[in-house]
Amino acid sequence: MLSRLYGVLLPFFVSFLIAYLLDPVVNFVQNKCKVKIRGLAVTIVLLVFIALLSLSVYLLIPAIGREVRSAAVGVEQYFANFDADKYFTPEQQDKIRKTLDGLNMESLLSYPEVHDAVKSLVPKVAGWITGGLSWLAKLVFEIDSDDFDYLQIHTGINRFCIKYNVAQKAEQAYSLVKEVLFTHMRELRPLTLRMTHAELAGVTSLDFMIEHIDHSPLNDAARESLRVQVKQLIEEPTTRGFRVKLLL
Asked: Cα–Cα distance between 237 and 79 in angstroms, integer?
């Protein structure tokens, strides 16, 4: 069970960590280099990072291989001049000799194998970085009752849109959130409102997640009203309940 969770969670952890480290670089490129489109700044940083990573691997792997082989030769020379009779019994010497003979350093450091591993790793890292940078563009509100602070939501959406250079979508987002929360889903509490922006894809969305229901909360009139205002309306069940997603 733990091994399965490790395999599933590792990419999420690595991508989040790399994205966290690269986010200040993206902000620097966007602000100091006058790259107004954040998605373009992300792409530039991503390409430079992958190029540096690939160059580092290309330069370091052969050097590490040479040093390890040199160390192996040094160890062999040391043992050739080592008076084992002073420290080990004949039986112990035989076991050590068999163990060392079974180690094939050339096989362990085979360049084709190392290069194949690197080739498979770099795309994974790139995918983790891309995903991680996209996850950072997320705004979440937990709405537990009718007493929620709509002004806080309005302000949060405004700041979110400005930060990710989609200010032109702010008014549309306000209108949709107000319509859904106060009209189509007024009786549904608690629910989770999430606004996301996939920077590389340039897709902005509003998610309304309602727990403990297995059907859409929208009637036909609500669907028609929302469809004319968005690029796409998505209704789908989840493990927690049901989600209504609006692509702006």
From this structure: 66
* pLDDT above 80: residue 84: no
| Measured distance CA(135)–CA(13) in Å, rounded | 12
Is the domain of 39 the same as that of 128? yes
Query: Mean pLDDT score of the chain, rounded to an integer?
Result: 77
**What is the pLDDT, as a whole number, of residue 130?**
54
Instruction: Answer yes or no: do 49 and 99 share one domain.
Output: yes
3 state DSSP class of 166: coil
Number of domains observed in the structure of the chain: 2
Please, what sign has the CA dihedral across residues 211, 212, 214, 220?
Answer: negative
Note whether 14 and 87 are same-domain residues: yes
In the chain, helix, strand, coil percent, each to 5?
A: 65, 15, 20
CATH of the domain at 165: 3.30.565.10
Nearest-CA neighbor of 243 among 183, 180, 198, 197?
180
Q: How far apart are CA 39 and CA 28, in angstroms?
A: 13
Closest CA to 173 of 198, 146, 208: 208
CA distances from 195 to 153, 202, 228 (A): 10, 13, 19
Say if residue 166 is in the same domain as residue 239. yes
